[in-house]
Structures are given as C-alpha cells and as structure tokens.
Amino acid sequence: MTVAPTFLPLRRSASLTHVEELPPRSGDPVPWPAWVPPELSSAFAARGVAAPWRHQAAAATSAWEGTHTVVATGTGSGKSLAYQLPALATLLSDDRATALYLAPTKALAADQLRTLESLALPGIRPATYDGDTNREERAWVRQHARVVLTNPDMLHHGILPGHASWARFLRGLRYVIVDECHAYRGVFGSHVAHVLRRLRRVAARYRSTPCFVLASATAGDPARSGTRLTGMPVTAFTEDSSPRGGVTFALWEPPLLPAQTTDAVTDAEPQRRSALSETADLLADAVSAGVRTLAFVRSRKGAELVATMARRSLDLAVPGLGSRVAAYRSGYLREDRRALEHDLIDGTLLGLASTNALELGVDLTGLDAVLIAGYPGTLASLWQQAGRAGRAGRDAFCVLIARDDPLDTYLVHHPEALFSRPVEATVFDPGNPHVLAPQLCCAAAELPITPADLPIFGPTAEPALDALAAAGILRKRPSGWYWTERHRPDVDLRGAGGGPVAVVESATGRLLGTVDTGSAHHQVHTGAVYLHQGTSYVVDELDLADSVALVHAEDPDWSTHPRDVTDLTVLAVRDTRAIGPVTLSLGEVEVTSQVVSYQRRRLVTGEVIDTCQLDLPQRVLRTIAVWWTVTPEALDQAGIPDVDWPGALHAAEHASIGLLPLIATCDRWDIGGLSTAAHADTGLPTVFVYDGHPGGAGFAERAFEVAAEWLGATRTVVAECRCEHGCPSCVQSPKCGNGNNPLGKADAVRVLSLVLDAMSRPAA
Ligand SMILES: [Zn+2]
Ligand SMILES: [Zn+2]
C-alpha cells in the first residue's frame, strides 16, 4: 500500500504516514439540453466544449427552469457552464434581459470576462465593474452592459446605493451568479448574505425577481449554506461527472530534528523540521525528476522562501537547474502571472511556489504533482488545491506536508479525516446583530424599509430596526423605517465593527489599506510585520488616537506573534446540556483582552528571537462562546490532583481550538479560548471557546452542535501525540497569552475522556 511517489526519495520515507490512491474517473457527457439555442452550443463547441457533463446539464436546466441552484463540485469540473448556459440562453432570447456575476476576487471576474468575450455571442455586452473601472467605462456599463461582472464589495458600495442609475440593468435582471460562494464565510459571509438580500429587495422595486445560481467548491451541505446565503430555498447539484486522472495522495510528516542543546528550547521537547524546508526539498526532488509541480504555501513570504531554497539546492546539484523554479507573486500583473502559468503548463518551468489557489488562472490544471505545505484550513481548499494535479491517462501525485500543529498532525495520522469525511459546512450567521444592524441601515438608505420587507431580513430584523430607531439612527414612520442622514452609512463588508485603522507608509504618506479595529492590536501593533498585497512592511508606530499605523517597507526573516491577557464574563446562556458531571453551554459572553507583548520568531526555524513589551489599552468583545464545565468531584475521581487542574484545562482548551477548523470553516485565528479551575460565573472548572468577531460568526454555535465529534478528535490528537509533555503538534498554541504555561498533556486526555464519556451517555 505505501508506495512512495517515485520522486520521493526512499531515505525519507519514514516521513510518509499514508498513501491514498484516488482512482481515475471517466466523464459522463450528455447531449445539450433542448432549451440551449444552437448558436450557444456551437459557440461552446468552437471553444472545445463538445457536450456538457451530466452534472452541468442538470444544474443548468434547474436554473433555466427558475429554481435557485447551487453546483458544488471539484476544481476543473466545469461549474461555470452550469450558470453560463441558462444566463446566456436567456440573454440571447430576450434582448432586455441582464445578468449579474459576483466573484470574491477581481482575477476571477477577469477570467470570466475573457471566457464570455471569447464566445463572441452577439449583443451580450459583458463588462467588469470594479475599483479599476474608470468613470467613462462606468457610465457605459450602467447604460449598456448586459452581463456585469463584479464583487460583493462593489455591489454594496457602488451599485445598490446608486440603484436609480442602474434602473435599466435592474429591470432586466434575470440571473444573479454567485461564484466561489464558499469564500463567503464568517463575518464576511454574514455581510454578503445581507448584500444579496438588499439586492433582492432593490430588484423587486424594479419588478424583477432574479434566479440565483451559486457555484461552490466541494462543500458540506451546500444547499443549506446556499439557502442561508440567499435567504431562499436552493437546490444543490453535487455529483461530479467530469473525467479526471488518478492521483496518488501522500501524507507527509517532517522528521524530528536532532536534539538541540541550546537554551532557546526550554522544555527540551524534540522539534520537527519546518514544513517550508520539507516542501522546498520535495519541490527540488520533483523538479530534478522532471515532474511539473505546483507547491501551495500559506504565506507569500513562505512561497518565496520555498522557491529560493529549492532553486539553491537545484543549482548546487546541476548549475542552472534552479532557473526552472519560480515563485508566483500576487503583486504581479495578470499577464505576468498567466505567463508563469503557461511556462509551467508547457514545461519551461518545472516548479512554481504559489500562495492561493484562487489567484491562479482556471486553466492551470493537469499538473504532474501538487505539494501542499500545511493543511490549508478547510477540506474544500485542500481539494481545490489538489484538484490542480492529474490528467486523464497519466499518474499524478499530491503531497500534504504537515506543519507542527495539532490539526495538521491529526490529519496526517488520521487519513480517514481527509479521505472519508464530507467537507465542512461553510459557516456564517446572517443573524449576527453586529452585521444585521449596519446592513439594515444600508438597506434603509437605499429604500425605506417597509413592514413587507421584514421577512427578507429574518426574524430579528424588526427588533433590530426598533432598536436603531430608539437610538436615533433610523427614523420610524407609519410607513416604515427611514435613514435620514445626508451621508450614506459607512459599512465595510470585510471588517468587524469599529472604525478602521489606516495603514500608511511613513516615507510617502501612501495609504496601503485599512485594518478593522478589532484586529488592529494584533495585526499592526508597533513592531508587527504586516503583509499587504504580497509586500512586507514593519509597523513603526500604531497611533490609536488617530487610528493610523505608520509602516515602512521591510522584508525581515522573522514573523511577529502577539501575546494577550484575557478575561471573560457570561452575559446570557442560550442553550445548555447537562450530562452527569459535565455541562455544555452556548451563550453570549463579554471578553476583555489586552495585547501586552509580541514575540519575534525566525521564519524558517520558528526559533524565538525575543519578546517585546507593548503598551496597548484593553479591548472589549461581545461575542458567542461554547463552554463546558466539570465538577471538582469528577476531576478528583479521574485522578487529577487539584493543583494540576489549570494545566489540564488549559491544554484541553488549546487542543480543542486547534481542532475546531476540522468541523467548521474557520481558522484558529478566528477563535479564542479561556480556561480556569474556577470561573466566577460557572463556579466550576471551565473551558471557554469563543468567536473572535463581535456578535459571533457561527463557529461556537457549530462547535456546540457537534461537540462530541469535535472533542473526540481533540482527545485523539493529544492522546496519540508522541511527545512527552506537550508540543506544538498537540497542546501548545502559537497564540497563547500565557506562554503555554501551565500545560498538562496527560491530564488533558483524562479530562477530555471524562467529558466525552459523559456526553456519550443518554441524556437523563
Ligand atoms: Zn505533542
Ligand atoms: Zn493558552
């Protein structure tokens, strides 16, 4: 079973923890549906699409019949045909009809524009409308374009507020296409859900009721996510009938480094080689074997390091060979990026290190090998990245290289969690009051909100509107709620409340971007390394009074890691389950935290350089938390002496935060935790895990729903880790506010077993 891909040298096969063979699949083509006009099918045929696959035809027909539809299949399965066919057929048959296409990135919208233009259909007039569109073009798009390709931010800031000048387009609106809709998760997803509801309401004003067609990467329960996103019932098509080559998928755990005797490693636990160094070696091995390989690396700096290290070792072996490896920079022009992709497809380049699958062109598929440096956070992203490998009739390889953290470690030792598990549901919460209230203000500024509009915005809309009226933000009249300010509400879809902090380059005064206040203390504190569009900056000063962070361009070989101290108060309990000595709860909490210092660590080795103090004020976050308590008696019976309770709970908290992304589409940085041997509000030993966004983003709620699965995986990863006292692969956390102290690894397994035993009992 464990046959290493040929380019992986045998001397390191101890790192190979699993090999999975994904069999090739033959395609299932069907005739063009009868409703597709011949000029449309022949335009696609001229582009090499002889016939649709079964899933494309089925989803397209569903949308043609007016059913809100989501197609959720793998990379390269041709999801775009599912929305192009019904939208274009409609536009060809009705010259007043229009369609709106939304993508999370400008690059995707640009790709879509090229496809539509290449079809050369008469009278379709596609155009992009985004931050790069100049004034004259914008006027033309409003007056004449029939397919408008844009993003949710532009719909929110540019189109909906000026709906009167879009009257022609909105009156004809028949299809709204939401591409890559799995990208809309967390707080951003909650905002986008309301932008789509606002679009529905404004369209209705122009007497149109468009059909929504959503395209998603493979995702858990796409019908439910699509329904939550649009607010209307959505039918899902998930069976992929496109062909693909077989892929050998290897899981790889970097080896332990020889024991070190430096003082830097205080607890003397063995350290693993970094995922970046391993990826660079594997990339070099692949390239010297003539294998065309794409390496996915989480950060851009990491991608450049991987390319540089691979080039260096290749040049040492065969001078000049290093030039066949490149890094793919998001800051490059689209033409340059496409040229790099083309060079990889035709073999001029053999290795490319890239950050994000979304930035890559859709044509870059069929590679010989894909290396994934660190689990990308969700199964959906993993399969999206892996989907770049494999051509019909040829073997291809994919290797996931684990980073030194609990989730990656769990996955490379539990292949069933990767290969036998449905992908995560996309989690977001349109009911989040911190999203709902500003979105209702935006809606009211577009058109007064009438009682008839309330169902669109959900059951909590009316109390939220009344609260806004009571606060003097909206005005309530018999006919509804009105926005009476002259300026429009200032709402950032990607922020999370509070005015943004401007990031400004000191030398030039240039505004690089903004960071919401919620994360400014963590991201742009004085001394922080801040990445903006692929360029690295170091923060000279965070000036909170003026909401500005002054930065200079610098590319240091360290990263920065903030430390904070946190306090938590329970405000209200929403739901609770008491099972024997264990109680599991979900509710509203107030978290007070203060970023007090940060560590600088070497990028490649992770070695701590130093810790620098910060002088930042406290911040207060109202959010949603899941928490569990155990009784002191049960801890006694489990054989944990009371002096060790803090370490047991703290270790269990860290590991459970590390494993939460297994069940919800969040990053461990989206969540926080707190554990204590006696919490003031519960009076008991307690572990809290909370959403890091005001009002919550749905993560804690999801954890409460599937607590047994979540905590079960948590116990497994801690129990199976081969370290003695706890390491980054199990209970240590990179964002611990207490310097990972105290941590009791063995006691964490005991306390988690206690909780799981209780939860497996039938409720009394
Ligand atoms: Zn460990
Ligand atoms: Zn901690």
Automatic annotation (TrEMBL):
Residues 60-237 form the Helicase ATP-binding domain. Keywords: ATP-binding, Helicase, Hydrolase, Nucleotide-binding. Residues 279-434 form the Helicase C-terminal domain. GO terms for molecular function: helicase activity. SMART domains: DEXDc, HELICc. Gene3D superfamilies: P-loop containing nucleotide triphosphate hydrolases. Coiled coil: none annotated. Pfam families: DEAD, Helicase_C, MZB, WHD_HRQ1. It comes from the Bacteria. The keyword Glycoprotein does not apply. The keyword Hydrolase applies. This is DEAD/DEAH box helicase. It comes from Dactylosporangium fulvum.
